[in-house]
Amino acid sequence: MHITIKPLVWSISTGWKALEDLYNVVPGELTVVTEVLNSGKSEWIDALLCNLNRSVGWKFALCSLTTLKNIINVII
After folding, report:
1. Are 36 and 73 within 8 A, CB to CB?
2. CA distance 68 to 63
3. 25-40: buried (b, 16+ CB within 10 Å) or exposed (e) per residue?
4. What is the CA radius of gyration of the chain?
5. Across 17-21, 52-56, 63-67, least confident range
6. Which of 27, 20, 18 is nearest to 58 (CA)?
7. What is the pLDDT of residues 42-55, one digit of tens each?
8. For range 30-52, the mean pLDDT
9. Which residue, among 74, 72, 75, 49, has the nearest Cα to 61 in the 3D structure?
10. Rounded distance, CA 42 to CA 53, Å?
């Protein structure tokens, strides 16, 4: 007899009920967010990180090169 035990996979809600059936954050998995320029990807990621910090207390460091480019353009 061979028994396979699958690891328990748990996920964390994004904080948006409308998205729950489509996507949840799973620790250890990589999520890639892609879309055309200026479609709100950075804002969405920022909001997701804030929701995760509020709900489970995770801390994040974020580098947005698009935002950095905009800041450099304003300084120059």
Report:
1. no
2. 8
3. beeeeeeeeeeeeeee
4. 17
5. 63-67
6. 27
7. 889 989 999 999 99
8. 89
9. 49
10. 16
